[in-house]
Amino acid sequence: MPRVGHFHTDFYCRADLRLAVLQIRSPVLPTKLRCFRKLLLSWMKTSGFWRTVLLSSCHAHHRDDQQLLSCSENISMAVLLLFCSEGDNVPDAFTLVNHLNDWLRLLDTAVQDSVPWRIPSSWRLLFGSGVPPMIF
């Protein structure tokens, strides 16, 4: 797993699909954004990826044209950005990854229909662990 500074990230790789996924697990503080960007771009260039696709979401009420601008760091990058609302965004995540698959054909459509996407184990407690029954 790559280390991108002290930022919380997870790394997944599927050699058969020639796919590597870096999941950024925590928000980047505005004061650390420049450092994070520099570390991430350095890692991407060193790794030799021939294409980078950024999947992200943003609150619909914060959307503006600045979010659609790409960086000019001599890397081949596409951005799939989904504007969403607060709440359970699991369906939004599936919408985003399905659009990615429609574009890049990572999984055959027949396979995709019969084998659902795997949900990361970290999503189990997305909204907490519930109320303990012992308190009632």
Automatic annotation (TrEMBL):
**Magnesium keyword on record:** no
Record keywords, A-Z: Proteasome
Protein name (record): Proteasome assembly chaperone 2
- Gene Ontology terms, cellular component aspect? cytosol; nucleus; proteasome complex
Q: InterPro entries from the entry?
A: Proteasome_assmbl_chp_2_euk, PSMG2_sf
Lineage, broadest ranks = Eukaryota, Metazoa, Chordata, Craniata, Vertebrata
Q: From which source organism is this entry?
A: Bagarius yarrelli (Goonch)
Which GO BP annotation is one of this protein's?
proteasome assembly
Q: Which domain of life is it from?
A: Eukaryota
